[in-house]
Amino acid sequence: MKYIKRFSKYLIFFLVVLFVISFFTSLGYKKLENNNKLQKYYKKGVYHNHSVFSDGRGDIDEITKDAKKVGIDFVILTDHGEPNLDSSSSTQYLNNVLLIGGSELSLECGHMTVMGYYPIDYRFSIHPQEAINEVIENNGVCFVAHPFDKRIPWTDWKIENFTGIEILNSYSEAMKMNPLKFFLFPFEYLINSENFMLSIVKYPYKNIKKWNEFLRKGKYFAIYALDAHSKLEITEKFYFAFPSYEMFFKLFNLYVKIDKDFSDNAKNDSDLILDALKRGNFFNVIELIAFANGFEAFFVDNENNVYDMGETVKSENGEIVVKLPFDFKTDVFLKSNNRVVKEVLNNKEKELRFRINKRGIYWIEVFARDSKYNDIPWILTNPFFIDIDYKREVINKNYVLNNFDIYNKFHMEKNKSSSAKISLNGNTIVLEYELVKDKNLKDFWIALSIRENFDLSKYDGIEFKASSLKPMKYWFELRTGKGDNELWFRRSFNLNKEERVVRLFFKDFYLYNKKNGTLNLKDITSLFISINNVIAYNGTNGKLIIKDFKLIGEE
Question: How many C-beta atoms lie closer than 10 Å to residue 34's C-beta?
Fold first, then answer.
């Protein structure tokens, strides 16, 4: 009994010490005042949020109510899925807040958020570049999520043509807490939740460095991400219901400049926001430091033409104008190639002009000098591309198309419950199908198969004409080896009812069923055109029309 009392005393003492430390840690924080109004055509929103559609705590009603409380115009939902169908289809006005549906994809190399794509009846690829291509082809937006997260980092940096990269992610920042900070968390949050949320944010050196590497290759944009779940998860079933969505929505905001004002049509207004994200016409704000209402950054050339963030400026002569209508001091940095080109410290001016006379990619970082948290980027703009032309070297090859007479060689393979019918008319194959899951099997599939040997080593790829009764994705697959040594190399292709030429190069096929292996084109043991549970849902039905097979050879 006395040991229990002694332990209780030590525990109480320990908790009191933690409370005192937490109290003094929270001193000195005060949100800076900014009473400016948000400029016309700017909308304030939050990106990367999870709901009960996946692993978030709250439903969309709670989320939009919390957004309304703090003056948010739009919320971008990114629930986990392939895509998440509920989240994807949730775009609407709710509680006078624009909710924009999207998903967070789990790919082979990490997570990517996607939004703005057309409604689809198939799953996005788990292969990163394929997934990016599918999203972009569907008019969507995609960002690399928490690239340097401790648990789920991004690992494939050969990708291209995505929209941008998360520069700050509050969940990843929280995961960097040291043990003492972790123990102090409940106390600090209880004493001053806003101070705690800011205290976990550090300058994102690695993220900005990686972003800058991609800026040398093309237009890629920086974004601050909440990754809000509105819960502190202890186990899968046990969690604390904080930080709230309302608290998250006070942390990081996007200030998006749109072409015209909202019309109260959710689809049209969502398109305005997503189009601005595609163009990079937005800046990022740590809102708990201060509101950024009134801030602007734009480029004016010598002929008084004005360019917004994300735009390419044809002339290398002009000024980047930065408006800072604040009653507190700022430190302002003009950066290019991740280096400070110009700086204004302890600034009190309401407007700064940075003269530009050299081509390059420039962005602005603003720090709130008078804030306790003056070492993290309060405002991060997206770049101005001054006289930058991303011309890529194009190697022109003269390709020869060789007839590939395989029409009569195809057979049908499927799981027991699925149904399919093949009809052949000359060089046209029609496949009508319905995918149905067997009770005791996880996988379900329908495939046009040819199980015989091919030597394709003299060729660069395959071409054919195809269409699908409704938008759908299919596999083209080559296999090598037999039994345990069999390797599957795949490439997906998307179709709709309009016939198109599909050209697949063998160099773009990737290994699916094992970690290591090389496509040996001299030893192709089977060929498949298929649809299965990896890319489609139980009950999916349709019609695939495919014809005019050609092998692509170099002249």
Answer: 17
Q: Over the stretch 73-84, which tens digit does the pLDDT of each residue have?
A: 999 999 999 999
Tell me 127's DSSP state. S
pTM for the whole thing?
0.90
Residue 239: predicted pLDDT: 63
Reference 450, options 421, 476, 417, 415; nearest CA is 476
Question: Of 100, 97, 92, whose CA–CA distance to 141 is shortest?
Answer: 100
550 phi/psi in degrees, rounded to 5: -135, 145
**Contact indicator for 142, 114 with CB cutoff of 8 Å:** yes
Query: What is the pLDDT averaged over residues 453-473?
Result: 95
- Write a three-state SS string for 469-489: CCCEEEEEEEEECCHHHCEEE
CA separation for the pair 160, 327 (Å, rounded): 42
Q: Tell me how far apart the alpha carbons of residues 363 and 379 are, in angstroms, rounded to a whole number.
A: 11
Residues 252-295 have pLDDT tens digits of: 999 999 999 999 899 999 999 999 999 999 999 999 999 999 99
Nearest to 331 by CA among 370, 275, 385, 386: 370
Q: What six digits make up the tokens of 362?
A: 């420039």
CA dist., res. 304 & res. 319, Å (int): 10
Q: Which domain holds residue 110?
A: 35-291
Give the 3-state secondary structure of residue 325: coil
H or E segment to which residue 64 belongs: helix 60-69
Looking at the structure, tell me whether residues 120 and 156 fall in a common domain.
Answer: yes
Q: What is the pLDDT of residues 464-475, one digit of tens each?
A: 999 999 999 999
Query: Are 283 and 307 members of one domain?
Result: no
The enclosing domain of 429 has a CATH number of 2.60.120.430
Report the first-to-last Cα separation within the chain, whole angstroms. 90
